[in-house]
Amino acid sequence: MRKAVILLSGGLDSATTLAMARADGFDCYALSVAYGQRHASELGAAARIAQNLGVREHRTMRVDLAGIGGSALTDPDIAVPEVPMTGIPSTYVPARNTLMLALALGWAEVLNARAIFIGVNCLDYSGYPDCRAEFISAFENMAALATRAGVDGHPSRIHTPLITLTKAEIIREGMRLGVDYASTVSCYQADELGRACGRCESCRIRKSGFEAAGVADPTRYAPL
Amino acid sequence: MRKAVILLSGGLDSATTLAMARADGFDCYALSVAYGQRHASELGAAARIAQNLGVREHRTMRVDLAGIGGSALTDPDIAVPEVPMTGIPSTYVPARNTLMLALALGWAEVLNARAIFIGVNCLDYSGYPDCRAEFISAFENMAALATRAGVDGHPSRIHTPLITLTKAEIIREGMRLGVDYASTVSCYQADELGRACGRCESCRIRKSGFEAAGVADPTRYAPL
């Protein structure tokens, strides 16, 4: 059975990505990263999703990005914006996807897995540079040169099954595959119980996605 | 003053790289990574070198690569080889330089530093794929697409001042710049006092380098 490492944040997109990798017949190793994110309750969500969807192993690696700050998601002194922003928003975490893919690359090499899945999306992506197809392609090229697997002629490929889907399409696909979206946490400032604010950009994109998909929003919102 | 992030392992190469970055007029931010390496005493060496050479800040970030294993440097069940090997040796750590450069990239972006220094070398490099110039070039291309700095038109450049130098040339340059090599730890299985085994590949390359440079070897070796 082909092995795959799936980056699993605990949000809607990565849960759907895991379900899709599983449906494609991969033996799934889920990787979550505790990087000092404000919404650490997403890590509990990741554990529930990994269990619900039946992964071979779920690993959470710790890296302290809060120590360097520079993002509303890692620096408590930078507020999460609650109105739409232009350009790259303050919730962008410097080099986060590069770092997560690097961790996935290392684990994939140890497991002899040649597939890495990441739930990036170029439509509802908030303007993050490291969610674009050209970034993924450049990472893949770099990874082929970085690793023993690449030198041996079987480099890891980065799979991005959501890259051109709308949020509504992602949700419909996940519903079809049995993803329990009530277990997922997308909110940038979810409380310790995993309840969403309903106001940040991630909440807004998610809410519109359920509306556009014609699916009742199962998100647990925090009381105002 | 231009800022630079310098990856500082505590070994001979990275200490020399830091001295060269400083001599080039950079304001130096040194980054060490505690990744579960067997020779954790190199981290103490990194702290001494950072202090001796006068960096603006020295940060040690932790990532648990020992949890995934797959290398003689992170898995205590895989012995460090003490005879020359062909191909990529068991001391290769999957995706390590990708990961370290990713951490440096994130910190550089927060600091608004556009230079990252890494002491890779294509001559005395043990066959590690992630020490080659083509890997560095691919990482740089990827980084330009990954980051806000890249989108804004001032991506980080990866500086590799040692890439084409022999170990003897590196040592002569470091001596000229006042690097205290007695403080550095290169050995893959240095003891907790930072004393070298004298037998692993890293020790052999280092020892030959001092001989070729005509410089007395200041390495502290562990008693047999």
Helices, strands, pairings?
The structure is a homodimer of 224-residue chains.
Chain A: E1 3-7, H1 12-23, E2 27-34, H2 41-53, E3 57-62, H3 96-111, E4 115-117, H4 133-146, H5 148-151, E5 157-159, H6 167-176, H7 201-213
Parallel strand pairs in A: 1-2, 1-4, 2-3, 4-5
Helix pairs in contact in A: 1-2, 1-6, 6-7
Q: How many discrete domains of chain A?
A: 1
Distance between termini of chain A? 47 Å
| Major beta-sheet overview of chain A | 5 strands, parallel
H/E element sequence of chain A: EHEHEHEHHEHH
Describe the structure using short key phrases.
homodimer, 224 residues, Rossmann fold, 7 helices, 5 strands, 11% strand
How would you sum up this structure, described in words?
2 copies of one chain form a homodimer. Chain A is an alpha/beta fold and 224 residues long. Chain A has a single domain (3-213), classed as Rossmann fold. Chain A has 7 helices and 5 strands. Chain A has a 5-stranded parallel beta sheet with strand order 3-2-1-4-5, sandwiched between helices. In chain A, α1 (12-23) crosses α6. Chain A is globular, with a radius of gyration of 17 Å. The model of chain A has no long low-confidence stretch (mean pLDDT 94). Chain A binds chain B through residues 59, 61-65, 67-70, 88, 92-99, 102-103, 105-107, 109-110, 129-130, 132, 134-135, 138-139, 141-143, 145-148, 150-151, and chain B through 59, 61-65, 67-70, 88, 92-99, 102-103, 105-107, 109-110, 129-130, 132, 134-135, 138-139, 141-143, 145-148, 150-151.
